[in-house]
Each structure stands twice: as structure tokens, then as C-alpha cells.
Amino acid sequence: MEFNIKKVGLNELDETAELFNLYRIFYRQNEDYQQCREFVRERMIHDQSTIFVVYANDKAVGFVQLYKLYHYIKLAKQYLLSDLFVHPDYRGHGLSVVLINQAKQWCVDTEACGLMLETEKTNDIGNKLYPRCGFEYDGNHNYYYWWK
């Protein structure tokens, strides 16, 4: 399978939003392409995230979305690897690893100190994938949420 990866923008909005919608469905959210499209569009217009899409045989089949953060210990920029998704029909070909490696390269290219991520405890695939890609589990912190 031939693949390539690229940083996307408004020209690739529709295909990126379609993948984002499928990603949310994977996490048990209702299908809502229009709302997903608007959400991704806003991130792109306001330069609030960086999105890389992987193409297999010229079809958009996966993406990674990064948000800029700042690390108080490293005193440097870092990225939150917020979203990672590969279409189920294209899993098992290493495309998640390709997307993660692109995110790591983006850190190098933008002089960021690294990546952080969070995934559900029940995400067996992700919880095996991330350590294989060099991520370390941080058992010292609890993550809490406040939702309005």
C-alpha cells in the first residue's frame, strides 16, 4: 500500500471532517458531520491546531491532531496529541505509527519539547501502541475534568 502524509488546511476540510466524525463515532458519540466540519474548520481558521492526514492510494484514511501547550518544567512549547484515528479498513498497516512519527517530527521542526496524550483505560489498542512508539506511562498524576 502506498501512503503519504501531509499537513492539511481548508482545502482538505471535507475529508478531514469526515475522518473526525468517524473518530468521534469510535468514541461512542453521535454521528454529526456538519458539526464536526464546523469544529475542524474553526480550528483551521484560527490556527488552533495542527492536523496531519495520512493518504493511502490518494484516499484520506487517518489523521492526528495536535494542540499547542506550554510545559512549566521544561519552560518550552509542547503539543497535546489530542486525536489519533485510522479508518478501520486501513488498520494493521502501521499508519498510526506513521502519524505518531509525523507528530514527533513536528515537535523537532517547531522546537517543541515533546508530546503528551491521554487515552481511555479501556483503549487496549492505544495502550499498547503508545509505549511501542516511545511514550512513557505517567502513573504519578491523576487527570481531572471540570465540564460546564
Automatic annotation (TrEMBL):
Residues 8-148 form the N-acetyltransferase domain. It comes from the Bacteria. CDD domains: NAT_SF. Transmembrane segments: none annotated. Gene3D superfamilies: 3.40.630.30. This is GNAT superfamily N-acetyltransferase.
